[in-house]
Amino acid sequence: MNDIKKRSDESILVCVYYGLNGERLIRRGYKLATLLNCPLYILTVDSKPVDKFDAEKSGYIERWTELSKELGVEKFIIKDNEKRPIQKVIAEVAKELNVSQIIVGQSAQSRWEEITKGSFLNVLLKEIPFVDFHIVAVNPPTEEEEIDMYEKGVRAYIVPAGEQYKIVFTCPKGRYIEGIFFKEIGTDFDNGIFRFSHNNKMIELKVEEDFVSTPEKIPEEYKHYLV
């Protein structure tokens, strides 16, 4: 994709971990990169050095390397023997490569919750605030088909709108709650979930047609703040 890079300011980073989902994410990233006419990078992070990888891990690395060459990926990056939090590593690589979009996937509900908890998202937002996130939730590896739940985790804001609370995507001049909005796939309206951190915990609000449908989950101090 070298000549593609010259024609586009966009760039995509796919973060993969061991499992069947890795190849699916790489192919997803390739399709998006082709659509946007931009370069694609693949990143995997491991706390062990490469020469200590077991046969299974080495097999995945070999396959991803072959696939990257097959698809013309700009660069396949292996960050091994890495002791820092994975989100710090992702942020560092994204900055170095001037990445504009990041794709992360998880294969089960527990992993989805892990990847979208406050610490992960908050660090990435602070480190690389102008990157769009695509967080893909899929069924466990035993399932044949990948199921997308949400797309484009993007920075958003909750603001008061009369007696309700509305989601907006341009930083408002008044008071607001800042967080990340995950839009449901296949909807024309802003339906999905809005997540923000409060007292080191992640608060999740359901959004239906631009408005918060679970206002009771907003902490009282935030409600008073927004008035």
Please, could you describe this protein's structure?
It is a single chain. α2 runs parallel beside α3 and α4 packs parallel to α6 (118-127). The chain has 227 residues and is of the alpha/beta class. β8 (177-184) and β9 form a beta hairpin. The longest helix is centred in the N-terminal third of the chain and has 17 residues, at 55-71. It has 2 domains: 2-148, HUPs (Rossmann fold, 3-Layer(aba) Sandwich), CATH 3.40.50.620; 154-226, no CATH class. The chain contains 7 helices and 11 strands. The strands form 2 sheets. A 6-stranded antiparallel beta sheet has the order 7-6-8-9-10-11. A 5-stranded parallel beta sheet has the order 3-2-1-4-5, sandwiched between helices.
Number of helices: 7
* CATH topology name of the largest domain: Rossmann fold
So what's the CATH class of the largest domain?
Alpha Beta
The helix/strand order is HEHEHEHEHHEEEEEEEH
Output the radius of gyration: 19 Å
Q: What general form does the structure show? A: elongated
What's the CATH superfamily of the largest domain, by name?
Answer: HUPs
CATH architecture level-2 label of the largest domain: 3-Layer(aba) Sandwich
Strand order of the largest sheet: 7-6-8-9-10-11
Return the structural class: alpha/beta
